[in-house]
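Entry, Tuesday afternoon. Goal for today is a structural model of the target with zinc ion bound, before we commit to ordering more compound. Inputs were pasted exactly as handed over by J.K., no edits. I checked the ligand SMILES twice against the vendor sheet because last time a stereocentre got dropped in transcription.
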Amino acid sequence: MNLQCFGGPLPQGGLKVTASWHGSVLHIGLPDGSGHVPAVGMTVKAGGFDGQQMIVEWRNDAGYWSCSPASPADQEQFLAQAPAVLTEQLKKWRKSVGKTRAGFHFGWLVLGTFFALPLLALLLFWLNADRLAGWVAQRIPQAEEVKLGELSLAQVRAQMKLTQQGEAARVVRDIGQRLTQGSRYHYQWYVADDPTINAFAIPGGFVVVHSGLIKATDNAEELAGVLAHEVQHVEQRHSLKGMVHDIGLSALLSLALGDMSGSVLANMAQQLGGLKFSRDQESQADLGGLEALKRAGISPQGMIHFFDKLSKQDGGNIELLSSHPASDNREQALEQRVSQLGSWSAQPLQYNWPAVKQSLKDMR
Ligand SMILES: [Zn+2]
């Protein structure tokens, strides 16, 4: 067998020597004649860059020696022929090689996991984003939800002109408060100076109605229908879930891309106006909205009529409808729900509607 040896009188870079066991003495072929090394004085240990190598050491008059089998086959031979006096040391060596091998693999596992986990999390999130967002949204304390809402509102303010002043805003607040009696949220009502027909609800109880939507209504009951619907997106935490969904995804994405700049927050306002709800959430908001109208003693006909009117206007190409996808039989489902709830007596809402719409002109 061949051993790679260092130390003693050998050259700096070591020397490959032939070796063989003769009983408990190792004969090594050195250039200046054979050397005889008794096994009794040998130390066997594990070494090398990966801790897998066998290193046999001894000390004699020529100094310190360190040899390793030159190949796995040489190692086999060394082990097979080694004398009994080395058995205990070789056992320890085997154990320690096994350990470092496991440790070595564990190191790779940790490294691999370190890189793979974010990707795995991202993948899992992607696949289950909807369910996860719902789960997270249900667990966010209301105080945190309101903080998130305030943050979003500030973003909206930066992009739109919002007001709580004037007749239109007063009517929105008035009707809104009737619809949210007993709610756990403290609602704030805003009118936005925007000609598109839209309204949206921010998590925590901030409702924004575009002036364009108010202009599109023929009476207070129609506005009440939209408000009753929007409020449900807050009450049922649809808006919060939508934001968790979008922010969660973009936060995870920026985490994966190593970019945690303010882009996440900057996107929030944009997402709010265009927050897409599912058809399920829409019908939940419709049905919950009807119940709120009943509790408030407001006729449901305005709601039913307004949504129907919008779907026929501009081929249904209305901003409110683009972010609030309706089922094909929305009107029918609403009528059905009303009859399920049992019709209720409703006093017409007493507002001077032309004057309310006229007041929007003062916003500019
Ligand atoms: Zn909706």
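The chain has a mean pLDDT of 84.
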